[in-house]
Structures are given as structure tokens and as C-alpha cells.
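S.,

As promised, the manganese (II) ion run. Input:
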Amino acid sequence: MNLNNLESVIGLEVHIQVNTASKAFAPEAASFTSTPNEHISPVSLALPGTLPVMNKKHIEKAVRLGLALGCKINPRNYFDRKNYFYADLPKGYQITQDGDPICLGGSLTLSGNRKINIHHIHMEEDAGKSIHDIDPLNTLLDYNRAGVPLLELVTQPDLKNGEEVEEFVNTLRRLVRYIDVSDGIMQEGSLRCDVNLSLRERGSTELNTRCEIKNINSASNAKKAVEQEIKRQLSILKKGGTIAQQTLDFNLKTQKLTVTREKEDAHDYRYFPEPDLSPIDLNEEYIEKIKQNMGRLPDDYFKMLTEEYKISEYEANILVESKELSDYTIKLIKSSELKIRTITNFIINKYLPEVKTGTDELESYPLNSDQIIGFLELIESEKITISSAYQNLLPALLKNPEKDPKKLIKDLDLIQDFDSNALKSIILDILEKNPELLKKYKNGRKNLFGFFMGEVMKASKGKSNPKEAKKVLGEILNKSDG
Ligand code: MN
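Predicted complex:
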């Protein structure tokens, strides 16, 4: 292998927690809770004599995701048992799909039209959680997650680097939120990915021994893990070593990779068809109905914003971040007289920076479209100065999102109400108080104009229109110049 001309070959396995009300095979809530062992039942604890019951919503959401990604829906699919022993898996096996998964093929497109092919998507259940860091002597077990429905999406080894992996995870996360398949909250483990990575000579098609990094819980950590693993494998090869098939762990605290397990293959799990559940038969009509109820996807909104409303691709990308924001933007454009530029400018440059703290998407946006229209119309009609609108009204509105901006502006006494006579008297007052500076101005220190402007705005408590104030101040200063 020419070590100076290598490329990385990356495939992902993404586990998506499905937002159904109940668990995959048991009746208790599937939602996240921080109280340990709150959502459990005899089925998820695998008490003797209990049997699993399929969850229709799990199947429906699997089909939804499959259709959104252009997969072929497998009309007859079934569950298998994946056998392994671990304390957080009370049955001693996981119910999953091995031989005949529900969705086959399909693809997800990254920016620049990079198509990442999907091998398949299957349904399975999650395991519970072993907690090692509370009790110094014992491992504690929390079975809330045991039996929570998952979709596992397995890509072809089409990804090339950490950036693509990051974009893939972010794009998939956005999609599952749009189509209401998962809440996509990565901190709560709603989306976790395993990365398979190997190196090969550029242009070659062979697949070399790969290593797997397990359970990465954010897109940016996935990128970091990939970049470190490429370096790690490269340094082994450079020392003349060979890559052994290993499982690694990306430590959140140290942000470092550590090897946790040696070689592990599918046959170790002794898969066989789940005898307690019947095969799943899906007819055309059922699939068609789900397709009809899908709603607009991020790509549809993107197309609409760029083609119909001529919004730049850069801006459209920001606006399609969530379905709520896309719907919102389109409603603002359609239902107000405001210019599209005014709306997009406001959302991208003022509103989002104000309401978003991290890089994560928002669960919901504090203001509704009527409030935003009201706010922007106040600016357009010059009822409030722009600076006061952003410094005073917007923060107040965000604190009182139930209020009508047109009422709030009155309550807060922010209405721009200085006519030119009132302005004139304020200006004369200021000039009178600063005779020395006025003299300097007259003697040529024209940059003092800014100082006087500042004083005028201060004296009018930000309620005068700066354009008007500038005009009147200019007139007065020039007059007293003469
Ligand atoms: Mn899995």
C-alpha cells in the first residue's frame, strides 16, 4: 500500500430512537425520563411467561423514514433474535431484524449532490442502561430504555471523511424531526452512531480490515472520532503494523479513542427468527397512505425558498433547519406585505441569534408569525426606531411572548413620537449646555457631529427617528455656523 496516497472508507450505523408513545413490544411509555426504572413492565423486564406485542407505530415510522430516503419497502419482513448476554438486556437477546429488514436501499444526499447510499433500515429494540459511575462497588441498572423502539440505518461505505460524517448525521437528524419519526435530541441518546472505518489506496475498490467506533452521541463528536481514527490507523500502518478488527470507544470527557473489544462477527450472535412474533406483511395501499401523509420534506422547502422566492441557497439552508422555521418563514412571506428580504434578514440576523444559544435546533420558537409580522411592521412604519426595536422591543417581546407587539410598544413607552419641533428644542438645549464643543465644531472639528447626535438620541430616550434627528441637527448646526 502506498501510504502517501490513502483514502478512508467510512460506513455508518445510526440508531434512531423512534418517538412512539409506548415501547416496541410492551405497553409502557417509551419517552425519556430521568427517574430510573419508571417506565418498566413485566415484558421489558423479561419476566417468565411474558410475550412481546408488535407496535404498529414503530412499523409505520420505519416505513415513513424509508419512503423519505427513497428506500424500497420490504413487503414481507420479520424480526430475529440477536443473542448475547449483558446485564442491561434482561431477555438475553435483542429483538431486531437481521435477514429481512423493513427498508432496503435508498440514499441520503449531502451538499454538492453527494449521494450516500443506504444498505438498509431495520427495526429493533433498545437495551437498558448500565450505570457505572454512581455506586463505587456496584453497577446500577436502569431499564427505562429497555424495549424503546429503534430504527437502525446502515449506510454503504460511501463516506469519505469526518466532515461528510458530520453532515450526514445532521441531515438525517433534521429529516427524522421533519417527518416526526424521532425527536432527534442527541444529548438524550435519540440518535447515536457507530462508525466503521478502514483505509485503502486511493482508487482501489477493495475493503480492508475496519475498526468500529461505537455509540457516538453527536455529529461533531462523530467528526472528531473519524479524524482521530484515520490518524490512528495511519500511524499503525506507517510503523509497519497491520490493522486488527477492533471496537473502539470515543470518550466524551477526554475526546480520545480507546480500544474496548477485539474482533466480533455476526455469527457470534446466533441470530434466528423471533418465534414469538409473526412476520410483518405490508400491502401497497398501506405504504401509499403513509406516502400521502408525509408532508413536505426539507428538500421540498429548500426548492420552494430558492426557486419560488429567490432566497439564496445559503440563507435557505438556514431557514430549512426545522419544519417549524420553514413553515413560519413561508407563512410570513405569504401573509404579510413585507419584503422577502426584510423577513429573511430579520429571521437569520436578528431573531435566530437572539433565541438560539447552542448549535442545536430549537424545540420550538418563542414568537408566532403574527407577532413577527407585527414587530416588523412597527419598524417599517417608523413607529419605533430600528435601534430601539432591537434593543428594547424585541427582548421584551421574547420575555412576554404572549403579548401583541403593538400593545407592548405602548406599554413600554417606545413609540417614536418626537416631531421636528420637539427635536429642535432638544437640540438647542444640548448646544446650549455644550458651548465649548459647539465652538470647536464651528472651528472645524466636524467629527463632533457624532457626539451631538449621541446626546440627542440619549435625551430623546431613543424615541426619535435618527434620520430625522440627523437632518434637524445638521440644519441647526449649519445655521449657527453662518
Ligand atoms: Mn443495532
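The chain has a mean pLDDT of 90. The CA atoms of residues 133 and 348 lie 42 Å apart.

- D.
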